[in-house]
Amino acid sequence: MIEIKLKQKHKSFGGSTEFYTHRSEATKTQMTFSVFRPKEEQTSKVPVLVFLSGLTCNEENFITKAGAQQWAADSGMMIICPDTSPRGTDIPGERDDWDFGESAGFYLNATTDLWKANYNMYDYIVNEIPEILESYFNADMSRVAISGHSMGGHGALVIGLRNPDIFRSISAFSPICAPMQCPWGQKAFTNYLGEDTETWKEYDASELVNNAEVKSEILIDQGTGDKFLEEQLKPEIFEQKCREAGYPLKLRMQTGYDHSYYFVSSFIKDHIEFHIKNLNEK
């Protein structure tokens, strides 16, 4: 069983915000995560939101900047925030660029020789995070949602679409919607997965939506003032693919909002309520 170690604990909105570290089999490194535990968890199993952060981020960004605890407390929802990549592997080039390597794991399982031993964030989120939730927290594993921001929004879409048995509600903020068609995704996929673009489709939400086993509505919020919107995020491609596949999507273009946590914090209440509604109906 995975052994976790408490690093910090802070009382928060009647519950607590906590930080843990543990050894990961998927990444072969020490990993960290943060978790908000609502007061209801002391006496009953509670629904869970897994939130995946974006490029340059770690387990602290969302839990400290998004203001999510107050709304999660109102709904009795737990939030768990994993780190965005392995740390300290000392792979050559790991820290050369802000958009690749450390803090940029892209929530996939790498297959190229240099990266495949450690960069397995897909397995970490799909296998180890649920094991931790079930082993150490009073989590209702029948009511788990997933969301994320930017690269983490990409991860939430891909992991949610591929694992509807685990993640029963999906949302995203400013997600990389078609990574095969944008510079961030092409750079990451080439280095992590190699040159065979057929293998990239496993990690592109705009490709996966065609064969989705379960079609539960996805909520996406995207700011129109986001400097990455046109070149990197491409929600219009995902919207078109969902339309063609008959997949329900609520894409909300929020006028004037940018790519920051000022944007995320403005709409996180809506996302928590969206997930609670979905999880309670299933």
State the gist of this model.
The protein is α/β, with parallel strands linked by helices and 282 residues long. The protein has helices at residues 61-65, 68-75, 121-136, 151-162, 183-193, 197-200, 205-208, 229-233, 235-245, 261-281, and strands spanning 4-12, 15-23, 30-37, 46-52, 78-82, 139-148, 169-173, 218-223, 249-254. The chain is built from 10 helices and 9 strands.
Q: Helices and strands in order, then pairings?
A:
Blueprint: E1 4-12, E2 15-23, E3 30-37, E4 46-52, H1 61-65, H2 68-75, E5 78-82, H3 121-136, E6 139-148, H4 151-162, E7 169-173, H5 183-193, H6 197-200, H7 205-208, E8 218-223, H8 229-233, H9 235-245, E9 249-254, H10 261-281
Parallel strand pairs: 4-5, 4-6, 6-7, 7-8, 8-9
Antiparallel strand pairs: 1-2, 2-3, 3-5
Could you walk me through the main structural features you see in this protein, from its secondary elements to its overall organization?
- There is one protein chain.
- By secondary structure, the protein is an alpha/beta fold.
- The chain has one domain (4-281): Rossmann fold, CATH 3.40.50.
- It is 34% helix and 23% strand.
- The protein has 10 helices and 9 strands.
- The protein has helices at 61-65, 68-75, 121-136, 151-162, 183-193, 197-200, 205-208, 229-233, 235-245, 261-281, and strands at 4-12, 15-23, 30-37, 46-52, 78-82, 139-148, 169-173, 218-223, 249-254.
- It has a 9-stranded mixed β-sheet, sandwiched between helices.
- The protein is globular.
- The chain starts with a strand and ends with a helix.
